[in-house]
């Protein structure tokens, strides 16, 4: 099944319903008139409660089953909200501009402002940036990270290189042992700690500013997106050489591989974004999928936790 859709909703946006539920958008475009997403926050009084996956699924199952959704296109259980049920559309670009102009910012907001000003001093156009995560909603606490969104692949790669240079100049800092361990524990990934850090240190999509971690997330929006339906065939582990990694930091990340049975690896979990470079050999554990046209791929991140699924380099340049 093929459908062409256009939409103003993008991954990393948040959408809010009249019940005080906030969902993170996970896919550009609509399916059956609904935004594909996942419940992240619930309004309790005047504050926000962040929900784990099991909490989110249980809450919807008991109180709001209308937001549970099986995607025929993705062959997966997700959450979805009809456009008519959206009361507020939280957009990262707009939120960034509001925070920059905010009087009396709190500590995390000030760290965010300082980071944006540092980038601006280096010639970065802030129009290409947005902020997602807790700062997008105003649900941050003193331990929150900064989750930046970069719109456009060219801007993203330029900012990665700038972060590398700013670390060399000590205007930003590489994550220390405590920050790496915290990041690893939050991810709950299927790599060893040593493997996780080795892969992450060379990505330059995260660093520290004033001892607070920030991450970069690439969103490359196409004016028109084509949806192709895939059916899962079961778990699989393969090894293959990466022949094209230009979309390695996209959402979803894509790695074109050289393999007799599988054409590409697609990844929806941030842990394995940018995980490999062209020419490297990788081991992939995920769900084998076949499209209606017969194209095969491996999906990493078939669930939010991606338990048992991973991408790791086994031979590098």
What layout of secondary structure does this protein have?
Layout: E1 2-5, E2 14-17, E3 21-31, E4 34-44, E5 47-50, H1 53-63, E6 68-71, E7 76-82, E8 86-90, H2 92-100, H3 107-121, E9 129-132, H4 134-137, E10 146-151, H5 153-168, H6 177-187, H7 193-201, E11 206-209, E12 212-219, E13 225-228, E14 230-244, E15 253-258, E16 264-267, E17 281-291, E18 296-300, E19 310-315
Parallel strand pairs: 10-12, 16-18
Antiparallel strand pairs: 1-13, 2-3, 2-8, 3-4, 4-5, 4-7, 6-7, 9-10, 11-12, 14-15, 14-17, 15-16, 17-18, 17-19
Characterization of the model:
There is one protein chain. With 317 residues, the protein is an alpha+beta fold. It folds into three domains: 2-90, no CATH class; 92-219, Beta Polymerase, domain 2 (2-Layer Sandwich), CATH 3.30.460; 229-315, OB fold (Dihydrolipoamide Acetyltransferase, E2P), CATH 2.40.50. 24% of the residues lie in helices and 39% in strands. The protein is built from seven helices and 19 strands. The protein has helices at 53-63, 92-100, 107-121, 134-137, 153-168, 177-187, 193-201, and strands at residues 2-5, 14-17, 21-31, 34-44, 47-50, 68-71, 76-82, 86-90, 129-132, 146-151, 206-209, 212-219, 225-228, 230-244, 253-258, 264-267, 281-291, 296-300, 310-315. Strands 2, 3, 4, 5, 6, 7 and 8 form a seven-stranded antiparallel beta sheet that branches. The model is unreliable at 1-7 (pLDDT under 50).
Radius of gyration: 19 Å
Count of DSSP H/I helices? 7
N- and C-termini, Cα separation: 39 Å
Query: Share of helix among residues?
Result: 10-25%
Strand/helix succession: EEEEEHEEEHHEHEHHHEEEEEEEEE
Strand percent estimate: 35-45%
The gross shape turns out to be globular
Largest sheet: 7 strands, antiparallel
CATH architecture of the largest domain: 2-Layer Sandwich
Number of domains: 3
- Total beta-strand segments: 19
- CATH class term of the largest domain: Alpha Beta
Decide which structural class fits the backbone. Answer: alpha+beta
Mean pLDDT: 92
The low-pLDDT segments are 1-7
């Amino acid at each position: 099944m093929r459908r062409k859709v256009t939409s103003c909703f993008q991954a990393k946006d948040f959408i809010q319903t009249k019940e005080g539920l906030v969902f993170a958008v996970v896919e550009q475009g609509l399916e059956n008139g609904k935004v594909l997403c996942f419940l992240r926050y619930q309004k309790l009084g005047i504050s926000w409660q962040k929900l784990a996956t099991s909490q989110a699924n249980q809450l919807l199952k008991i109180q709001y089953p209308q937001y549970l959704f099986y995607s025929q296109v993705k062959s997966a259980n997700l959450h979805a909200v009809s456009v008519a049920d959206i009361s507020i559309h939280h957009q990262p670009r707009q939120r960034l501009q509001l925070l920059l102009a905010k009087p009396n910012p709190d500590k995390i907001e000030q760290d965010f402002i300082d980071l944006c000003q540092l980038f601006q001093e280096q010639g970065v156009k802030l129009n290409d940036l947005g902020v997602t995560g807790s700062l997008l909603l105003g649900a941050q606490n003193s331990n929150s990270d900064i989750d930046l969104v970069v719109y456009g692949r060219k801007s993203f790669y330029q900012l990665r290189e700038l972060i590398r240079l700013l670390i060399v100049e000590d205007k930003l800092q590489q994550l220390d042992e405590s920050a790496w361990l915290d990041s690893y524990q939050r991810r709950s990934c299927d790599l060893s700690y040593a493997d996780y850090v080795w892969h992450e240190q060379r990505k330059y999509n995260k660093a520290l500013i004033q001892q607070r971690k920030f991450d970069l997330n690439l969103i490359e929006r196409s004016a028109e997106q084509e949806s192709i339906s895939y059916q899962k065939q079961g778990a699989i582990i393969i090894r293959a050489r990466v022949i094209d990694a230009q979309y390695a930091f996209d959402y979803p990340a894509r790695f074109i591989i050289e393999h007799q049975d599988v054409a590409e690896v697609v990844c929806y979990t941030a842990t394995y974004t940018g995980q490999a470079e062209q020419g490297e050999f990788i081991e992939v554990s995920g769900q084998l999928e076949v499209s209606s046209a017969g194209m095969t791929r491996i999906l990493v991140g078939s669930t939010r936790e991606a338990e048992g699924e991973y991408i790791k380099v086994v031979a590098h340049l």
